[in-house]
Amino acid sequence: MATEVEVSREDQLKFPYWSPIRRRFDPESSFFAAGNVERELLAKQVALDLTEEEKLQFRNMEDEESSKLYCPLVGCGAHLRSLDEFEDHYTSRHSAACSVCSRVYPTSRLLSIHVSEVHDSFFQAKVARGFAMYECLVEGCGLKLKSYKGRQQHLVDKHKFPTSFEFFKKAHPSKKQRKKDQHKQAFGTKEAASRAMQMEEDTMDNLVSAVSKLSTSDSPSSISFGRRHNRGLTFVPRAVRQAKEPESSARRS
Amino acid sequence: MADEITPRRDPIKSSVGNVAAQRRRQHAITVAKERREAVVRTKRLCRVGVGGGGDDQLTYDDDGDGGDMMIDAEQSILEAQTCSAVQDLKLAMLFQGKGAMQKRVAALREVRRLLSRSEFPPIEAAIKAGAIPLLVQCLSFGSPEEQLLEAAWCMTNIAAGKPEETKELLPALPLLIAHLGEKSSLPVAEQCSWAVGNVAGEGEELRNILLSQGALPSLARMMLRNKGSTVRTAAWALSNLIKGPDPKAATELIRVDGVLEAILQHLKKADEELATEVAWVVVYLSALSHVATSMLVKSDLLQILVERLGMSNSLQLLIPVLRSIGNLVAGDAHVASTVLVIGQSITDSILPALIKCLESEHRVLKKEAAWVLSNIAAGSVEHKKLVYASEAVPLLLRLLVTAPFDIRKEVAYVIGNLCVAPSEGSGRPKLIADHLVFLVSKGCLPGFIDLVRSADVEAAKLGLQFIELVLRGMPSGSGPKLVEKADGIDAMERFQFHENEELRCMATKLVDKYFGVDYGVDDE
């Protein structure tokens, strides 16, 4: 067995490449459990009058017993009776799909956070007013941050997420979809307007800075979008919309 | 008044029936649990006398109930009978007059019969009735052979039960061990070794006590004999005695004069039943003791094991033989270079034998054979080439897709090990490109991506590591497309919310490096 050595942060970050090594197991290791059960079954089938059915039961029981398996997605912890069960569990519990952009999230909570942050203009309005709207993704933490980047930093600092983690990732569309998007960008269809609803972080920044440019020196320094009755950014000034064409945030294939 | 409905009282019969049904169900659960214990523990009930002894043809269903599980009533009858049989024994022990010995033996026989009649002997009842001190008395030196035999048989079955029951036999141990000596008659020695084997199978604590009382040399000597059930029982008892986890017993055993030769002789020549038990001794020797492993490796053992592996069709024998080979290959760095030398006949015959196991219908053989192959494939480049060129590869590729999870994981280790050269120093190990290209072309990638999706951390890590090889090593940058086509990106993106940090980092790194913003931009 390799000895524990002080591992530098850099080493920790290195990808653990495949390295062929010999693997050894202790005699009582769970690796050998099935063979041990088989030994006993074969040796005692006469003395204990075991039926074929019983033997099968014992073999399968061994599988389930040794499965101290729990769903590995953050915050789930569901007990899995067997590894085969995981796939079913995943598709039924962890495939919350966004109806607007088809991104998939492992919990309905994360999905709803996504929808608010990306498809809800009201959310953006509150952000622009300085409310802390970006929730921490870890269930139970409860902290809210004022910006996407701030939330990101919190995840890395407090909850040890990798620095490259991106909650809102650019999707990886299929080749067909990518071609479609490239066409769309070239011809600028009407969909661009509805796309404005899909605010990306940089679009947001541009929006804020663009609007601030529109304001006069008399207006209050803090930007407030719409009034109490309005839902906010439903109508985006054309000047702002054309400031930056949203990137191909195409559907996931 | 018409609205009032007086509650009907259930007839008394059915409520009694319910209670009885419930009791039966409860009993069934207990019985199932006890049955499970009886199977899983490494003890063996003695239902037929050793060496063909025992006076009656034992019928397992001598109460004609069709062998159904015993219900409450029958069990308590058995217990009552046991209690009275022990009382009879007590009286017989006190009796001094003519025919005392016959009386004693007859009483012992009755207790023995009750303790070997069913799969669940009334051990607790026997102990409560005070059987053990009487049995210990019956084991005293100079007692007639039949008496020793019956007493030891009773103890064998008492020791086959629960921990607290087995521990009651502590006072008997020195006597049992003493009767293992070379002056004892063979049947007596064998029956005592069976009892000792059951006690050793109980746990580490009792094993240590037996060892401190000198059980090991006596049992070892019994294994030196040529044939007969005595050797077999002694070998089985030894496997229980040395199983550790402390390796000192295993080391002590291999150092006993003549043991190594006896092991080699039995594995080479003996019938499959005996070879099986001896092979299990080798399993524990090779798994626990470095001293034993190096002695075994220097001998002919591996050759003999490989021959058996290739020739036998008995699952019982194949399991410990295969595992012994596995332990030796895994445990000793020199096995590959000194024994499995390329060109030697052993090296030529080990692969077909392992392939035979891969083709077997038995899960255990498939899994452990793949494990052995993975360790061979973790050796030198020559060894990798040997495995790569063999008939194993098409089999492995098939198993990677169709086999149960635990087998697929082992197969993954083989395939991956075939694609990576032995690491030199601290750098990243080099790829063996043509192996990788070939295996990927044969469709092994989906199997690895499947592992990435599993809930098992080790398997997921393996899958990601292999994906990295593909992304890095496939020629002309064809890796990323291949991985994408096999839904690899999708599988990796699952890790965004995975609780294991290492896996998250690994997946993120791969996605960022190979599927970043520029991915697919230059498509035709």
From TrEMBL, chain A:
The lineage of its organism: Eukaryota, Viridiplantae, Streptophyta, Embryophyta, Tracheophyta. Residues 171-182 have a biased composition (Basic residues). Residues 171-193, 213-253 are annotated as: Disordered. Residues 242-253 have a biased composition (Basic and acidic residues). Residues 98-119 form the C2H2-type domain. InterPro entries: ZNF511, Znf_C2H2_type. This is C2H2-type domain-containing protein. The gene is LOC113722884. Residues 213-224 have a biased composition (Polar residues).
From TrEMBL, chain B:
ARM repeats lie at residues 214-241. Gene3D superfamilies: Leucine-rich Repeat Variant. Residues 1-12 have a biased composition (Basic and acidic residues). Pfam families: Arm, Arm_3. GO terms for biological process: protein import into nucleus. SUPFAM superfamilies: ARM repeat (SSF48371). Keywords: Protein transport, Repeat, Transport. Residues 1-20 are annotated as: Disordered. One of its GO terms (cellular component) is cytoplasm. GO terms for molecular function: nuclear import signal receptor activity. Belongs to the importin alpha family. This is Importin subunit alpha.
